[in-house]
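User: Predict the complex.
Assistant: Input components as received:
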Amino acid sequence: MNPSEQIRAKAKELLDNKTVDCVIGYERSTDGKNSRPLFVYSSKDADRLIFDQTCAQNLVRYLLNRKDKVTGIVVKPCDSRAINLLLNEHQIQRDKVYVIGVACSGVAKTDWNKTSDKLRDACQICQQHKPVVYDFLVGEAKAEPAAEAYPDIKSMEGKSPGERRAFWEEQFSRCIRCYACRQVCPGCYCGECFVECLDPLWVGIRIAPGENEMWNTMRAFHLAGRCIGCNACELVCPVNIPLSLLNRKLEKDVQTLFKFQSGIDADAPPPFAAFQKDEKLGVAE
Amino acid sequence: MAVDYQPRIVGFLCNWCSYAGADMAGTSRITYPPNIRIIRVPCSGRVDPLLVVKAFQLGADGVLIAGCHPGDCHYTEGNYYARRRFALLRPFLDYLGIESGRFWMEWVSASEGKRFSQVVSSFTSELIKLGPRKALVPEAVS
């Protein structure tokens, strides 16, 4: 059986046995090429489920709206780390989620309705081809972890601060502050986001370079040690700001400084909630 | 660069050690550059990265965070949490083009008036070397 058939069979079984109330997965979208999220409430709809190289979205965010119901969810390896993140932060309960993990060797790059044969940038440097948490595993991981995880970050670090300043000013100047990056992020679930706080007004409401920079800097920093690298934010950005360059810079530094990787272990204490008295971190020494 | 350039430093000083250290510098009549604007905070662990980024956004040339030496925190462990936070923020700001030299974190105890003045002096001279920052907000509050 191919992954799609396996997912359909499992979804039918789960819904018929009333193990879950709903299965969240992917279906073919109306353009016939891409895929879109699908909520399956009865087994007669389960045949619409698919899984292929177009299934780019991270569905884990939907679990936050279904905390009191048992939900089955189709996750790719990167998305599965988001489940561990939400478990670690006590946002979901393990017994309310049935995880259908799919081994994944990468998702194709899409630009509106044009699909290409090339993998997404995040998939080309992917280190995780097997889900970290699952109740049922679909498929087999064929791809090997990429040799180099941070080639683009290292080349950015090699530039001078002035060059980086100019680069980011140009990138942030395009931001229209639609907050789509926040809306898709499984880690951005605060009831009141700092950007909507009026007193103090951390980020002014006008779309100006300084305010945009404030937003993008703090969005990335609030996900420091939490971002699981699904790259959903970059995927939805309407003006193509390379947000993964920010997120993965922090991911890399968290790894070197605190030896921590988010979403791998649901029980590990997050890096900012722990410390060692004699650690050397490069500040105040 | 203009010779009369005076950098503006925002200093977040912990109430129990560094603020008292700055006070000690004052009562001991130790001089230090007037470039620092001191904000008293209950603990270095109180300083949210938002405050630092906001200070830079509004045109600060440098930000100093000073707290109790490790082991001396009035709240036992606030400075350890602060250390982790800013150890990560510092390279991140550098990555965004705000040089690491503009963001300092130092431990200054209540008795270290002399040290406080040295920290502010060397920070100021480093900022003069780095030169003025372009404020991110066109009409920054001055």
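Chain A is about 30% helix and 15% strand.
Let me know if you want any component modeled separately.
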